[in-house]
Amino acid sequence: SERPRWWRDAVIYQVYPRSFADANGDGIGDIAGIRKRLGYLSELGVDAIWFGPWYPSPMADAGYDVADFRAIEPVFGTLAEVEELITEAHGQGLRIIADLVPNHCSDQHPWFQAALAGGPGAPERDLFWFRPGRGPDGDQPPTDWIGEFGGGTWTRTTNPDGTAGDWYLHLFAAQQPDFNWDHPKVRAEFEDIVRFWLDRGVDGIRIDSAALLLKDATLPEVVADAPHPFHDLDGVHEIYRSWRRIADSYPEPRALIGEVWLPDRQRFANYLRPDEMHTAFNFDFLSCAWDAAALRESIDGTLAEHASIDAPATWVLSNHDVTRVVTRYGRADTTFSFASKREGTYTDLELGTVRARAAALLSLSLPGAAYVYQGEELGLWEVEDIPPALRQDPMFPRSGFVDPGRDGCRVPLPWSGDAAPFGFSPDNATAAPWLPQPAAWKDQTVQTQTSDPHSMLELYRQAIRIRRELPALGDGTLHWLPAPDGVLAFTREPGFACVVNLSDTPVPIPPHQHKLLASRPVDGDLLPPDTAVWLRM
Ligand code: TEU
Ligand code: CA
């Protein structure tokens, strides 16, 4: 019989474990906290939950530096608790997606520790990228590559006898050595790790930095118009083909979900061929400014590319790496940038919220699967005034301004009450939340929003409920309606339309039977600026 392809039209909620809910009061989110709040997620109506990395980690990069791929970080809980979480979630009809980080590990991982301790010639060095430095004293890095966090990509080691040694490669922080994916032992290890988590019942695996795994072993410098030495090498697809064979060997459907940041849509789609990943995050959509023409171009390009290989599209507005959507859309210039703070720019959070509400209705009515990053449904904004001493993200200063990093979108959720920790931690907590919550979040809590029919939370709840009830929504196709400049209007069959007004004047709403949902109150048949409406046609 046909296996359900749940990833094609799912609403997938991203839980950032450190910041979701803290049950034991140490100020850090944990598995027990998540289990207590599962009811919230099933009430929200999502189909699946993706958990950020839950593995033992020194937390140099918030858990993306993994010391043991088959265990749970003790601060979060135990493997037994995660197994119970999976069972409970399945009992509530929620699917579970685990985050896997195959490009690199923590410098505390036993393989890397053995590579250092064994000195030059240690066999474990072949599992990573150890190379002598350049220059007569070897004190220059092997290449001048710029890493994904903006700094250099090589760190020099000290030999066991105290002399200066070889350098090792890290595309991210120095505490995240890159694996050598040309080595069969690395491949075998990760095939085993994929099986380990699928055996524990996870329904999907999110693959971190999926396009970066292979490197050109001749280590050329990055040159414009030449093949890139570590982005999207052709051989990387063989790795995902082998994982797909593993995923397909399970009786229940399992999904591979790629984190593939590639500007070229064709190269991106290569990862979604029928024998590779099932789906991947659409960063093209996330990167769009609040601009009808840009969004339409992104939607059309995405749908055309995905249709040609029968892969489901995905719609992503935010995640734990980017400035929160309310803040992005509240700026005078809504062009995407990784950096949160921009010197001299003023952010209108009210405007940003109005737009984020419209964007929610847009992303939840496009064909394919939609992602919701925790707190997006509460209208949380980027916390830009975290004191430098409390910031934890390893990102480097970038050119032109100092990038404060990604902490501002990772602040613990406000659940209830009038003051921090807003129910994130229990009343008898022994520590404050690991990042400070703004006092103004008293108006953003789950509790306050639950009783307010005009809240962001109720908008998400209603939209997801309608999406579940209407066969027109989810997977399928879309047809554009004629619309004035600055307006996106499309139908989904049968009998559904979405209209989003991104212009600065009200526009007429097309003829319809009734309004299903609007991102803010709409009187009569004029749609105000920065507003979206769902129509029964
Ligand atoms: O991000 C991978 C990635 O592509 C980053 O370069 C991203 O662009 C960066 O956050 C902004 O410059 C993944 C994770 O989502 C991220 O949280 C990790 O820090 C990173 O991998 C390393 O594991
Ligand atoms: Ca805790």
TrEMBL record:
InterPro entries referenced in this protein's UniProt entry, alphabetically: GH, GH13_cat_dom, O16G_dom_2
Family designation: Belongs to the glycosyl hydrolase 13 family.
Domain Glycosyl hydrolase family 13 catalytic, chain residue ranges per copy: 14-410
Keywords: Glycosidase, Hydrolase
PANTHER family listed in its UniProt record: ALPHA-AMYLASE FAMILY MEMBER, NEUTRAL AND BASIC AMINO ACID TRANSPORT PROTEIN RBAT
CDD domains in the cross-refs: AmyAc_OligoGlu_TS
Native source organism of the sequence: Plantactinospora solaniradicis
Protein name: Glycoside hydrolase family 13 protein
MF (Gene Ontology): hydrolase activity, acting on glycosyl bonds
EC number of the protein: 3.2.1.-
UniProt cross-references to Pfam families, sorted A to Z: Alpha-amylase (PF00128)
Tree of life domain: Bacteria
Signal peptide positions on this chain: none
SMART domains, sorted: Aamy
Top-rank EC class of the record's enzyme: hydrolase
